[in-house]
Specification:
The protein is globular, with a radius of gyration of 23 Å. It contains 14 helices and 24 strands. The model has no long low-confidence stretch (mean pLDDT 97). Strands 1, 2, 3, 4, 5, 6 and 19 form a seven-stranded mixed beta sheet that branches. Strands 8-15-9-10-11 form a five-stranded parallel beta sheet. A five-stranded antiparallel beta sheet has the order 20-21-24-23-22, with helices on both faces. The protein is 32% helix and 26% strand. Helix 1 (12-23) packs parallel to helix 9, helix 3 (46-64) runs antiparallel to helix 4 and helix 3 (46-64) packs parallel to helix 6. It folds into three domains: 2-147 and 274-334, FAD/NAD(P)-binding domain (3-Layer(bba) Sandwich); 160-271, FAD/NAD(P)-binding domain (3-Layer(bba) Sandwich), CATH 3.50.50; 348-457, 2-Layer Sandwich (Enolase-like, domain 1), CATH 3.30.390.30. It has 465 residues and is of the alpha/beta class. The chain has helices at residues 12-23, 39-44, 46-64, 80-104, 163-166, 183-194, 214-226, 282-285, 320-334, 363-368, 384-388, 417-429, 434-438, 449-457; strands at 2-8, 28-32, 108-111, 113-118, 121-125, 131-141, 145-147, 160-161, 175-179, 198-202, 230-232, 235-242, 247-253, 260-264, 266-269, 273-275, 289-290, 293-294, 307-309, 348-350, 355-360, 373-379, 395-401, 407-414. Bound molecules: 1,4-dihydronicotinamide adenine dinucleotide (NAI). 1,4-dihydronicotinamide adenine dinucleotide (NAI) binds at residues 150, 179-185, 187, 202-205, 210, 236-237, 270-273, 317-319, 349-351.
Length: 465
């Protein structure tokens, strides 16, 4: 069998790349080692976590938010297996959707561990040991990432869990300790807090959500604390011991010093992810790596002709939508077109309540780069729809170049921020200014009016504040 393109890995990077290449007339195959397509995102990441975030948010709302709207219901009762079924059904519908799209686009799928034998040769090893070698003109590596382990805190996916185990707990823990105040820690910490766990987050740095705008992270921390989550910042976990009842963690200040014991029923390790390239045979094939990531040029080419790489195994943020866009771009490049990804406009969303969404530069990044800017801010306490929805927590911040008014970054903390951020992304993709945003008519009454008001606030001409 000979192909134009073989994609190794069927996550958002790989499956999107395969479909786009097939649309462009290439003969395409995908190699996937797991039983279902979709990678981490669809099986044990974005999709199942959003199913639980949505369900737990409604559970929380029914228990604590309805009365203020004049809706009296008895305290809601949790049916955890029922909630897990919603999660499993959501995952199944999505992974089956990818299988359907492969068929529709005539992408051939091989189940097994893919390895690069040489340029133009991909070996597929099936679970029963059968080996098959496929010939291809091009290879795209899209094998994604895996959980970064924490020395001294061994993940057993029962008491000490990664995000995978945290999506599948059999009961609500009394006390959940989350190690790492990043995206996974805050999202899955939120799920279990809403369902009744006491959640403490231990973070090495002196702030949460590193990389996000500092003002945004600070307000988010205050809101999470108001919800009952507690934070132990500038602290490190140096060991974990399983006990009859749970786990005992040894925690000390990040700077060192006296160790303290902390008890938990469940510990979630969420200190980041690292590229997954095990078993790919990259070293033998001569593919250059740097600090675990495959090195690529602007056209996703590795140093070996005919071998490309995208997604979490290469530089840049480990985000499904970044991988998807790279998948489209590399497919187009292989098909002789001009594929491109604009890394300056990749939105990032934390799906907590409220959501935290951002696109472009933070204030800290602009200051570090010596770029002068104007900031316009608008709080949801001054937005009519937010009041009607009892969703007044949060704000919008628009950062625009001082000289040209071009929008360089937008940051939103709000219910629905993850949907609202995209008008900023489109604006920035077109090189728009804060005035463009401010003069665009926004429907009333919507939360999005706060985006417009923040843009108006860049020139201090907001109406409702
Ligand atoms: P992360 O990089 O977002 O956060 C990890 C946190 O752990 C950081 O705050 C870091 O300072 C801290 N940390 C590192 N070592 C530590 C230690 N020894 N002790 C205490 N704290 C420590 O990583 P996370 O949350 O595990 O997520 C992994 C990847 O998955 C990220 O790239 C993230 O972007 C992606 N992801 C994205 C989501 C989204 O877009 N909504 C959802 C979930 C994950």
């Amino acid at each position: 069998m000979s192909y134009d393109l073989i994609v190794i890995g069927s996550g958002p990077g790989g499956y999107v790349c395969a479909i786009r290449a097939a649309q462009l007339g290439l003969k395409v195959a995908v190699v996937e080692k797991e039983k279902t397509y979709g990678g981490t995102c669809l099986n044990i990441g974005c999709i199942p976590s959003k199913a639980l975030l949505h369900a737990s948010e409604l559970f929380d709302e029914a228990g604590h938010g309805f009365a203020a709207l004049g809706i009296e219901v008895p305290a809601p009762k949790l049916n955890l297996p029922g909630m897990m079924k919603h999660k499993a059904d959501t995952v199944a519908a999505n992974v089956n959707g990818v299988a359907f799209l492969f068929k529709k686009n005539k992408v051939e799928a091989f189940r097994g561990l893919g390895a690069v034998l040489a340029p133009g040769k991909v070996q597929v090893t099936v679970e029963d040991g059968t080996v098959q070698v496929l010939e291809t003109r091009n290879i795209v590596i899209a094998t994604g990432s895996e959980v970064t382990p924490l020395p001294g805190v061994e993940i057993d996916e029962k008491r000490i869990v990664s995000s995978t185990g945290a999506l599948d707990l059999a009961k609500v823990p009394g006390r959940l300790i989350v190690i790492g105040a990043g995206v996974i820690g805050l999202e899955l910490g939120s799920v279990w807090r809403r369902l009744g766990a006491r959640v403490e987050v231990i973070e090495y740095l002196d702030r949460i959500l590193p990389g996000m705008d500092a003002e945004v992270a600070k307000q988010a921390q205050r809101l999470f604390e108001k919800q009952g989550m507690t934070f132990r910042l500038a602290s490190k976990v140096t060991g974990a011991k399983a006990t009859a009842k749970g786990v005992t963690l040894t925690v000390e200040s990040a700077a060192g010093g006296a160790a303290e014991s902390v008890e938990a029923d469940i510990v979630l390790v969420a200190i980041g992810r690292r590229p997954f390239t095990a078993g790919l045979g990259l070293e033998a094939a001569g593919v250059a790596m740097e600090r675990g990531r495959i090195v690529i040029d602007d056209h996703f080419r590795t140093n070996v002709a005919g071998i490309f790489a995208i997604g979490d195994v290469v530089r840049g943020p480990m985000l499904a939508h970044k991988a998807e866009d790279e998948g489209v771009a590399v497919a187009e490049i292989i098909a002789g077109k001009a594929g491109h990804v604009n890394y300056d406009v990749i939105p990032g969303v934390v799906y907590t309540f409220p959501e935290i969404a951002s696109v472009g530069k933070t204030e800290e990044e602009l200051k570090a780069a010596g770029i002068e800017y104007n900031a316009g801010k608008f709080p949801f306490t001054a937005n009519g729809r937010a009041r009607a929805n009892r969703a007044t927590d949060g704000f919008v911040k628009v950062l625009a170049d001082k000289a040209t008014d071009r929008v360089l970054g937008v940051h939103i903390v709000a219910a629905g921020a993850g949907e609202m951020i995209h008008e900023a992304a489109v604006l920035m993709e077109f090189g728009g200014s804060s005035e463009d945003l401010a003069r665009t008519c926004h429907a009333h009454p919507t939360m999005s009016e706060a985006v417009k008001e923040a843009a108006m606030a860049v020139e201090k001409r907001q109406i409702h504040l």
